[in-house]
Amino acid sequence: MSRVVKLAVIPGDGIGPEVIAEAEKALDAVTAASGVRFDRTRFSLGAARYLSTGDTLTDDDLAAIAAHDAILLGAVGGQPGDPRLKDANIERGLLLKLRFELDHYVNLRPSKLYPGAPGPLADPGEVDFVVVREG
């Protein structure tokens, strides 16, 4: 059975685009044989956008993102110490606005060790835990 997931992709700034590129490769690899396909829409949000337009996240951006099933969000914030970003408050204008307006309540990170997967915790026991961070 095939399934299409509408994915809002926000690469962000700094290492964000690099991390998102690798995350997309991982998503494609783990879903390759599953019938899941991602219909991606890229959003240019973060410090670069703020410096270019003065906007962090407009109501139109928010409505477009809300029409998606999921968000893949990279690091945002720009170059530390950049005086042009002193009053930008990208965290409040972008991250917190996304969290509050879309009712994002938790950052859930399940971790499980699979048979045959090497790692420092592979021997002697089993790993199966969930990290819950604030939204």
Structure description:
This protein has 4 helices and 5 strands; from the N terminus they run βαβααβαββ. The protein is α/β, with parallel strands linked by helices. Strand 1, helix 1 and strand 2 form a beta-alpha-beta unit. The radius of gyration is 18 Å and the shape is globular.
What's this entry about, in short?
With 135 residues, the protein is of the alpha/beta class. It has 4 helices and 5 strands, in the order E-H-E-H-H-E-H-E-E.
Q: What's the count of strands?
A: 5
Question: What is the number of helical segments per DSSP (H or I, 4+ residues)?
Answer: 4
Helix percent reads 25-40%
- The structure class reads alpha/beta
Q: What's the SSE pattern?
A: EHEHHEHEE
Cα distance spanning the termini: 32 Å
**Unreliable segments of 5+ consecutive residues:** none
Please list the strands of the largest sheet in the order they lie side by side.
Answer: 2-1-3
Rg to the nearest angstrom? 18 Å
Q: What proportion strand?
A: 15-25%
What's the pLDDT, averaged over the residues? 87
Main sheet attributes: strand count, strand direction, barrel closure:
3 strands, parallel
Overall 3D shape: globular
Which key features would you list for this structure?
3-stranded parallel sheet, alpha/beta, 135 residues, two-stranded antiparallel sheet
